[in-house]
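Quick one: structure tokens for this chain, please?
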Amino acid sequence: MAIIERPSEEVALAPSSVPEVATPSTSYGIFRRPVETTGWKSWLFTIDHKKLGIMYGVVAMFFFIVGGIEALLIRLQLAGPNGTVLSADKYNQMFTMHATTMVFLFVMPMAAAFANYFVPLQIGARDVAFPRINAFGFWAFCFGGIFLNTSWFLGGAADGGWFMYAPNSSVAFSPSNGVDFWGLGLQITGIASLTGAINLIVTVINMRAPGMSLMKMPIFTWMVVVVQFLLLFAMPVITVALFMLMFQRSFDATFFSVEAGADPLLWQHLFWIFGHPEVYIIVLPSFGIVSEILPVFSKKPLFGYPLVVFSGAAIGFVGWGVWAHHMFASGLGPISVAAFSVATMAIAIPTGVKIVNWTMTMWGGKIKFTVPMLYAVGVIVQFTIGGLSGVTHSVAPSDTQQTDTYYIVAHFHYVIFGGAVLGLFAGFYYWWPKMFGKMLSERLGRWNFWLTIIGMNLTFGPMHVVGLQGQPRRMYVWTENRAGEGFFNIGFWNLVASIGSFVLALGVLTFLINVVISHRKGTAKAPLDPWDARSLEWITTSPPKEHNFDRIPTVGHLDEFFHRKYEDRGSGDHHEFHQVATGEEVVANEEAHAESHIHLPSPSYWPILLALSLPIMGYGIIFNLFLLFGGAVLALVSLYGWGLEPHTAGDDEFDPPTGAALEVAAHG
């Protein structure tokens, strides 16, 4: 535990004069703590939620590129008749790994990146409740993703679709190790999701700033909390299913074997009980981001804040009752089909409430179409299209016809890409100056936005047409005699979709170029409050200090930062806000009243070692049980070392920075 000691007299400290927290090291042999405060080791052993958030984002973006390359290969294969880019087996592997990568290795961890970085800041906390568990969660995700993708080089990747239906996932139909890598890799990343969920729930419940009631929390934090509860209850379900699959493939269990009297539909029920809440796990963080951005650039408070909160919670709750609409073609029976049809229609209500609230937030506002605002509006439009196509799945006869066609692919991508990915890009542009202290180029950002929007609609729009024509989503070639005629010529629309995928890839490349130019070429330092923001994460420097806040803010309002800058001189229901301070003045006032003691946890290398043991055990299950034993030993040693990390540091670690005394201790 690092403790900053400041002079007792109250003085105003400029941002540059606030002492930095030095990272301690101890001299306890194997339990020696990392000492580096800069360089790669400071990132490798960090437990700072901000650094972990950035690392989540970098690794997730890497997997986004991997998944994008897989998608481009799929579209090249389908661009013309009788494609030869991929064999049937490689197409199945590419199809499976693209979806798996995008869902589990990009969208979910990228949302975790924003949650890790900004939830503590938005609630006025110095870190998450369990910083070392937070670090373990990141490394478990990272190693799980690497483990999953090493299957390409160790006998072939999974080939049963991201839903991995039984009996297609059995050894008889998929004899390679790909499904084993898939199941074990998802279990490892699932551990990361589950630990992260517990961590963020405890953080929000116990570490909110004084005065911040639940109904004064920013909407992004609210949506993150809903997602963490979904993860808390959904991850055990898919974990049970994955354990069953692992035991069936590796140890000859018969959980899904018809010949042993089992029912393969058990897998579908377990997978989709997880898989449909998963959709909201993916999109709700982006809904939170959009709800943060629209008020800022409309110069209005969020319309119907309580309704947005409760509709988010309602989406999470009702989402548990719609899983079987993925199974209408499996013969569930008319009563079950009717019940899940009604539930599927019902979940459109809270989703529609959000869209109405977002629209009314912009209505009558002084809208400024910055890049974050463009992406936020893009989410509303594109997600609405995906939602309307999704409502057709609540009608069982229609859903049965659309099942396993490209119509499903079109709907899913409008929801996930249009609802989640566009929202994440809105968050990139909105919070980039807070995270890195520099602005991304608005000019390149607009190119990024329009290429992405045009590419998305060119890619996924035509899939509605070819899907209604009956093109199966797992068909690796199509022939000229199935091309059709006129508007329904699937050859033409497949070519359009393939061209659109490269336009979309160019949009993503533009974003990466924007990032490189902004940081390599050296753009001007971003103002502390570039957007005239409203929420608590802006009441600190950009990027935030290691300890986040010089003093824990006291909250009196929803949109606390806004109310510190503007005074309401109206009366009754008439509000008339006049600016009384700039964002820079608010931050300077916080620094002028800095707390004398600031406690921070110390870095540790045990989380990364414990996480490393998981893929080693995974390789052991697949290839050699001696590796399983070695991984288990490493896990036990890591847990032992983690538990015995010293609680206090040695006397030799008193290293005062200029202008302050720094006492160092280590807190386990």
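DSSP finds 19 helices and five strands in the chain.
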